[in-house]
Specification:
mainly alpha, two-stranded parallel sheet, 11 helices, 6 strands
């Protein structure tokens, strides 16, 4: 916030830790989203504590400006605007957010190219038991906790408000109990649907993905489950 108040155009946020699993537990990840993500309007990126330390040491030692390029440009090879949605799992997207996204996309029709991106983190040095229980590909792809659950744990015993407590209570309950592997599998199913439709007709990819996501939100709330059977019904 200090950088934004000072009039800067972008900012680098230095994490307090270097352990990816500490961020996975979301007490840093979700708190940063709640405390900063909804107030900052300038672009920002995060680096781990060790990388941030190197940057600061270089500035102090050299006593010269350090230039870091943050490239936020999107190419338009076919004269369409390309945009992406990064999310950890469907449990982090409310139905209202999906509806708003649909309202945003609809006027543009085929003049945009939409790409969903699944946000994971890598922890190849984690204990084998943790990688097998929580991750894929030897710890290269691990899911973040649903934000509601993360903030719930962060505020346990405190009176602080959970910014995600307005989510459907039935989906909140699923977020508390769903296994990490199932979160990853559902995200992969969503990504596979996108990739399949994109190869066949990328002008239909947003509509197909959007309809599936809205259907899954309804199914998760109605049946209070997140699994392959629910996805199969959506397909």
């Amino acid at each position: 916030m200090n950088a934004q108040t000072a009039g800067l155009k972008a900012a680098i946020l230095i994490e307090d830790v270097d352990d990816p699993m500490a961020l996975r537990d979301a007490k840093v990840h979700a708190a940063a989203d709640a405390a900063l993500g909804y107030q900052l309007t300038i672009p920002y990126m995060k680096v781990f504590a060790n990388d941030g330390k190197k940057l600061k040491e270089y500035v102090i030692a050299k006593r010269l400006p350090v230039y870091i390029k943050i490239d936020l440009g999107l190419s338009r090879p076919d004269n369409r605007v390309e945009y992406e949605l990064w999310y950890s799992s469907i449990l982090d997207l409310s139905k209202d957010q999906l509806v708003d996204l649909g309202k945003y996309q609809k006027p543009f029709g085929n003049h945009t190219l939409f790409t969903p991106r699944i946000l994971t983190f890598s922890c190849p040095t984690c204990p084998k038991a943790i990688k097998e229980a929580n991750c894929f590909s030897e710890g290269n792809y691990c899911p973040y906790q649903p934000k509601f659950t993360a903030m719930e744990e962060l505020n346990e015993g405190a009176e602080a408000a959970n910014p995600f407590e307005d989510r459907d209570e039935r989906i909140q309950e699923v977020a508390r109990t769903v296994a990490d592997h199932e979160l990853l599998m559902e995200s992969l199913r969503e990504k596979c649907l996108y990739e399949k439709v994109a190869k066949e007709d990328d002008t239909q990819v947003y509509k197909t993905w959007y309809n599936f996501m809205v259907y899954m939100q309804t199914q998760i709330a109605f049946r209070q489950e997140l699994n392959k059977e629910a996805s199969d019904r959506g397909f």
